[in-house]
TrEMBL record:
GO molecular function, one term: N-acetyltransferase activity
Keyword Transferase: yes
Protein name, entry field: GNAT family N-acetyltransferase
PROSITE patterns cross-referenced by the UniProt entry: GNAT (PS51186)
Species lineage: Bacteria, Pseudomonadati, Pseudomonadota, Gammaproteobacteria, Vibrionales
Pfam families reported for this sequence: Acetyltransf_1
PANTHER family: GNAT FAMILY N-ACETYLTRANSFERASE (PTHR13947), LD18367P (PTHR13947:SF37)
Length: 162
């Protein structure tokens, strides 16, 4: 088993778009208010760039793209970032890929000197929620003001120690 994690490139865009939409549909995240409907999904490599303090990492398993995860400023904030679009195909789950993607994104966030990281997700995504809890995210009772994902029902925040 060979796992490769690397920053997204334009040639990854179409496949990552397909994965995000397919996994979103699997968990009912379809339509307005859910990440798979965001305009950035069509061309992720254009939205996640170092000059925007953001990165999107793509995971490849045995030569096939199986998912990805990103980090970007939350609503343009210089202190709060957002863990975004962690989506993995079923055959790649349970192998530690989601944890590795998330940990690398959070390390990037610390390098960028963000003080906290926000995420929103769905209560149906049990394994993702357990991962986020292990990574130190705490549950919130409501979304951060300005979230674009009104369809999500789980909101979490992690503070960084420096």
């Amino acid at each position: 088993m060979t796992i490769l994690i690397e920053p997204i490139r334009p040639e990854h865009d179409a496949e990552i778009c397909t994965i995000i939409k397919a996994v979103g549909a699997e968990f009912g995240a379809v339509g307005e208010g859910f990440g798979p409907s965001d305009p950035e999904v069509e061309a992720m490599s254009q939205y996640y760039t170092l000059d925007k303090n953001s990165v999107y990492l793509v995971a490849t398993l045995n030569g096939n793209i199986v998912g990805g995860c990103g980090i970007a400023p939350f609503n343009g904030s210089s202190t709060t970032c957002e863990l975004k679009k962690l989506f993995l195909l079923p055959e790649s789950r349970g192998l530690g890929i989601g944890a590795s993607l998330s940990e690398q994104c959070l390390a990037f966030a610390k390098q960028q000197r963000f003080t906290q990281c926000y995420l929103d997700t769905l209560s149906s995504m049990d394994s993702a929620i357990r991962l986020y809890e292990k990574l130190g995210f705490k549950h919130l009772t409501q979304p951060l003001e300005g979230t674009e994902h009104g369809g999500c029902d789980i909101w979490m925040l992690k503070s960084f120690e420096y």
